[in-house]
């Protein structure tokens, strides 16, 4: 395949972003569960964490610590995001996490997801119900896909880096996110507006976080939405993001300030 100069540059920047921000290099093919229990609060709510594409549960550790400090039971899921289609990932990752929450007799189950993790959850809820499901926060989810996938999917190495799930995240009507429909659960979406990869951002409508446009994080049926000046790879570790997550899980809405206009 003959590649244009612009495609080669964009691909190089994609690979650099993967390397420099730790987005790639996840090679596990099984699901691993880390559970952090609370022993001071009777039957605390349980929060399931789902990391993004080509990441690991380590990327969610700062958030896990913050949730545990608020007396939640936390189930931090490590799943093989680069090796299976989204439908398979949903069936592999979510049932064992739910089982861990149910062993604690948690009255409510929440989810916090990063990027692909949000689509994995939406896929699961297409086929299953979670009676204890209460609130969900999605961080930088490609709810309407990403134009970067549209542009770079034809390049073979893109599939090697991102796997079958990454190839499903385009913006066409037939892409998986756009076949899942509106949400019918209590959802808050946090989008980023800062990019660490300006060349990849050229493929995206502004504002964007370097991977997903702000507009494409939105989904019909969401309860609340807020945009923060953070980038896609680091949004789950950002202190302001974590404050907003904790507030939404507790209250069902984000902290909007008059100064932000949000």
TrEMBL record:
Superkingdom of the source species: Bacteria
Pfam families: Abhydrolase_6
Keywords (A to Z) from UniProt: Hydrolase, Signal
GO molecular function term, any single one: hydrolase activity
Signal peptide: 1-21
Domain named AB hydrolase-1: residues: 47-163
InterPro entries recorded: AB_hydrolase_1 (IPR000073), AB_hydrolase_fold (IPR029058)
Gene3D superfamilies with a match to the protein in the record: alpha/beta hydrolase
Protein name, as recorded: Alpha/beta hydrolase
